[in-house]
């Protein structure tokens, strides 16, 4: 069978479940590249010694869970940072305040999010309204850029 994937970013889609991917073609990067790029960006901005804690708000399905796991492994290996919160809101949720409140109470150095589309816009709007962006050194994520202009 031939598989052509235009937007299948999770490695569990093929790399982990099927050993022979000879006829699978992917036209986009996958979660390992995205999550580790976010780790690299955080370390470049704050330095290895500037990151003691991190948190995450990611979608509650394979994409978000896998990206958070990969980000965690990467940032812990490079910095020794400790995870202080990991939340997984459902896709299409209309309220992320519980997750933002948790992050505000922990004040991590880095927050990672793979939320995208409307979820990313909602996260950024509610994070800004509840001072999460002021309580965190840096917010990184592979797909947040698409919603950056939605926040006033």
UniProtKB/TrEMBL annotation:
<keyword id="KW-0732">Signal</keyword>
<dbReference type="Pfam" id="PF13458">
    <property type="entry name" value="Peripla_BP_6"/>
</dbReference>
<dbReference type="InterPro" id="IPR028082">
    <property type="entry name" value="Peripla_BP_I"/>
</dbReference>
<feature type="domain" description="Leucine-binding protein">
    <location>
        <begin position="19"/>
        <end position="146"/>
    </location>
</feature>
<dbReference type="InterPro" id="IPR028081">
    <property type="entry name" value="Leu-bd"/>
</dbReference>
<protein>
    <submittedName>
        <fullName>Branched-chain amino acid transport system substrate-binding protein</fullName>
    </submittedName>
</protein>
